[in-house]
Amino acid sequence: MDRTNRTKFAILGVLSSGPSSGYDIKKFCEEVLAYFWHESYGQIYPLLRSLESEGLIRKDKKGTAKGDRRIPYAITATGKKELQEWLSKPFSEQPPRNELLLKVFFSNLVGPVPVIAQVQAYLDAQKRLQGALKEALSGIEEQTEYSEQMVYWKMTVKLGMRLCNARVAWCQETLQELEELKEKGKSV
Length: 188
Fold this sequence. Notes:
The chain is mainly alpha-helical. It has helices at residues 6-15, 22-33, 41-53, 77-88, 99-105, 112-141, 148-183, and strands at residues 57-59, 73-75. It has a two-stranded antiparallel ribbon. The radius of gyration is 21 Å and the shape is elongated.
């Protein structure tokens, strides 16, 4: 099994766009990468220290305002080289973990009623995500300054939109089936 620390490369990837503090990296993950990647402060801060000790990043005090406690980090040439090497390697497929699907799978034990509420909540969340992804794509397309990076960002957002659209369709289908089960009295 591949034991590559992908958090390391997520952080190096964010820093490849410019110096950032741990807070800024977390915010970037929440606002930009959230639909396909998640990192916590508990993952980011210890790894920043480790990456610095490995010489892959360095503190970048140039961008620090007086009194600002956030320390920005910048990727080093060694860090960029390691990121590029990782980007060139084949990816390792990770098994998905989806709590909603796990619950749906075993819902014969509770019947359709509680599942309907959960699938509806998931549908609502996916519709919000659809809107956020449309805004993200629009923002990328409105960029007046060409950036090769934006082309790649657009690719990820487009897949995110397609996956989100598929989840919305699944929710709508599933809700219809659950309502039919409820009408037939198929509950525990």
